[in-house]
Specification:
12 strands, four-stranded mixed beta sheet, alpha/beta
Length: about 260
């Protein structure tokens, strides 16, 4: 029984199948972990969503910004963007079943036995793992409840830029979602820069979130996606970047958690 963590698929179903073949994935015994962004930009989002949902061994999936965007579009608070490729899901006969399954997925997964944690964008440097889990559950509880629709119209935006314990209401929820699904650069005061999507920045005291010494993710290794520009390069010990830009003519990458071996197509 093996465990494979896979970077952002983004609707690239055929590369996913090729990657699983390379891994010699056994759907009856092996477990797949996904760093989020199962859908969008790629040509086969519906196929990806159906495949992951119907895996015989329950997969570990965390929500990415594109997954949350799908939910926001589907429930009527946001229009499709120019480059979105979500219409196949929105028009599918099993649309409601797929969307219900998607919104039951967490923002964060921790496996104490394997010693890994899984997030989409990263771990906000001013949060411990325990703190992050508590905050993730605040958003998950609302996403998973019957009254989830009211959340989506308030999720979009870059404010507030820094965490405060007294944040409340949708400002609090928006920051939590941004930290888990959109974060790349953070300064020493904990302020997010949600505009820069590159791989390096040398001004205004900003650095990649994983370069901050305040990070307290031990004793877990951390798996994340979201940041294709890194091309899987992350020098921080115990932190693994798995989005290698399949949708941008790069590769789709998997890491076998049992021994750290990497696979890519």
């Amino acid at each position: 029984m093996a465990h494979y963590a896979i970077g952002d698929v983004q609707g690239c179903y055929d590369p996913l199948m090729a990657l699983l073949q390379q891994c010699q994935f056994n759907e009856k015994t092996d477990t797949l972990w996904f760093t989020g962004d199962l859908v969008n930009r790629g040509p086969q989002s519906l196929d990806v969503l159906r495949f992951v949902k119907n895996l015989p061994v329950t997969p570990r999936v965390v929500l990415g910004n594109h997954d949350i965007h799908l939910l926001a579009v589907a429930f009527g608070h946001v229009t499709l963007h120019k480059h979105d490729t979500l219409n196949d899901i929105l028009k599918a006969p099993d649309r409601d079943e797929l969307l219900h399954w998607l919104r039951q997925q967490p923002l964060m997964h921790v496996n104490k036995d394997l010693g890994f944690m899984l997030v989409h964008a990263g771990l906000y440097p001013l949060w411990s793992v325990d703190k992050a889990q508590v905050l993730a559950k605040e958003v998950e509880a609302l996403l998973q409840c019957d009254d989830h629709i009211k959340l989506y119209e308030h999720l979009y935006g870059n404010e507030p830029v820094v965490w405060r314990e007294d944040l409340a209401g949708f400002d609090r929820l928006r920051f939590i979602v941004n930290a888990f699904t959109r974060m790349r650069f953070v300064n020493s005061q904990g302020e997010l820069d949600l505009q820069n999507k590159g791989s390096d920045i040398t001004q205004n005291d900003y650095a990649p979130w994983f370069d901050h010494s305040e990070l307290n993710h031990q004793p877990y290794q951390l798996l994340f996606g979201h940041w294709a520009a890194l091309q899987g390069q992350c020098d921080a010990p115990g932190i693994h970047a798995l989005d290698t830009g399949c949708i941008w003519d790069g590769k789709l990458t998997a890491m076998r958690l049992d021994d750290g071996v990497l696979f890519a197509v």
